[in-house]
Amino acid sequence: GTVLNPANTKAILEKHLKATGGRVYTRFPPEPNGYLHIGHAKAMFVDFGFACDANGCCYLRFDDTNPDAEKEEYIEHIKEIVEWMGWKPFKITYSSDYFQELYELAVELIKSGHAYVDHQTADEIKEYRENFKESPWRNRPVEESLDLFEKMKAGLIEEGQATLRMKQDMKNENYNMLDLIAYRVKKASHPRTKDKWCIYPSYDFTHCIVDSLENISHSLCTLEFESRRVSYYWLLDRLNLYLPYVWEYSRLNMTNNVLSKRKLNRLVTEKYVDGWDDPRLLTLAGLRRRGMPATAINAFCRSIGITRSDNLIRMDKLEHFVRDELNKTAPRTMVVLHPLKVVIENLEAAEEVEGKRLPDDPSATYKMPFTRVVYIERSDFRTKDSKDFYGLAKGKSALLRYAYPITCVDYVCDKDGEVIEIRATYDAKKSIKPKGVLHWVPEPAEGARPLEVEVRLFDRLFLSEDPAELKDTWLEDLNPHSKQVIHGAFALDNLRTAKPGDRFQFERTGYFCVDPDSSAEKLVFNRTVTLKTSYP
Ligand code: ATP
Ligand code: MG
Ligand code: MG
């Protein structure tokens, strides 16, 4: 095979060092063909994080060489979500900024005998590669390739009729050295360059050249690109360009979900979920909407480390970091998801009691009335008592958090036998010490209904831990109960002023975040995570 351990010449290296001052230069290179996901959070942690730690620079570079799949909407979203994650690009660039230079380098490559215009179909190319056979056009004269490439550029050749291929090594055991495609004819309008070009460079042609032109010192990418490293260096060496240091790390995968953009795209466009920012997806937009702080996502990325081993990480690991942060920062409040009315018979007049916002801050408190009618969680009452049950049952007591112990003296059922009201007495002296502590919501004023809110609860999107293993049947593995919407939950009155994005701990039920679907009439909350892990 070809000798592939090229060294930079002194002149190239000097030019590079002059541009960077010897500092670390990295890039985060998303293709704008979808929204970013938690795997990209890892990639950003590596690319931006490494540059940041080394006092270097990290580009946000849109790898926009495939106009079929790329959209302005994705570009705008990616810029915004990178900033939300806390990263500040040194510069924002686009592979398409370099289309002219890339084209000129392609011409140079043809001239030096390292590229040729080919007419094989995709199937023929595949078959020939499998048999290590050369295309019949491989050894055509340089002049002919130059002329045809010019015609490709001028729009005189139809899609599929010609490609520009790098003249690499058709005997190489590495598939990614078998004359990779450098350019294709594509009569598509590009989000940025519009109709200026009808030939587009491939990833393999573009990525290494743009890395080099941007003076990237460390080109960090995921392991599936490892086998393309040989070609990366082959091309830069043939063009006498500076050689960045390439280093690979493993892709992140998460249990019970998918990260491939192709799959995410299907889930979104075929409406299995409610858009790219559906809180059940592991897109960063989805995680944000669900209430996960960017700092917790970054802490998670730090914890999983940067390795070369395959990794399928459990969802509870991410949730651990989210709980850890929200426990310290999300103020506590009380919301009853499925309200059941309790009448406290011996309470004559409402009294004010004080709730706690944050465990570590005794001064963070809120006031609420303890009223004759309060609401508790339906599941905190049972007609049949048992030893391991700490809620209310006839004759049994429980503490209303921040208020008083109450004892159930009776209950009322409707004609279908459903419990609709609890009758109770309270212990003004707090002499009884029940084991159970209940969250509850008072009446804001006598006879008035508490603030009603909508609550959305989420469960794993896929039933199996690794849906990617299922190949073609992955969609059948979707969890039919991944989203549950509760209408008419009762909240403390002081939640009335909550704004989209605000985060809370609802005592005993989890951490919640105000959804952007909220309006002046109705607040909507998403459960970010439960208080304890829900993954066995
Ligand atoms: P997909 O295969 O889902 O389309 P991609 O790798 O093509 O993903 P890009 O937008 O090109 O997605 O990725 C930008 C950067 O993020 C690349 O460096 C890529 O290696 C990295 N990246 C993408 N997915 C993951 C992941 N799951 N874990 C770690 N890094 C990732
Ligand atoms: Mg990519
Ligand atoms: Mg891709």
TrEMBL record:
This protein's record includes keyword Iron: no
GO CC, alphabetical: cytosol
Residues of the Glutamyl/glutaminyl-tRNA synthetase class Ib anti-codon binding domain: 330-427
Single annotated GO MF: glutamine-tRNA ligase activity
Catalytic reaction annotation: tRNA(Gln) + L-glutamine + ATP = L-glutaminyl-tRNA(Gln) + AMP + diphosphate
The keyword Protein biosynthesis appears for this protein: yes
GO biological process: glutaminyl-tRNA aminoacylation; post-embryonic development; reproductive structure development
Domain tRNA synthetases class I (E and Q) anti-codon binding: from-to ranges: 437-515
EC number: 6.1.1.18
Keyword entries, A-Z: Aminoacyl-tRNA synthetase, ATP-binding, Ligase, Nucleotide-binding, Protein biosynthesis
Record domain Glutamyl/glutaminyl-tRNA synthetase class Ib catalytic: where: 24-327
Family assignment from sequence similarity: Belongs to the class-I aminoacyl-tRNA synthetase family.
Protein name as it appears in the record: glutamine--tRNA ligase
Organism this protein belongs to: Selaginella moellendorffii (Spikemoss)
Full protein segment contained here: 232 to 767 of 767
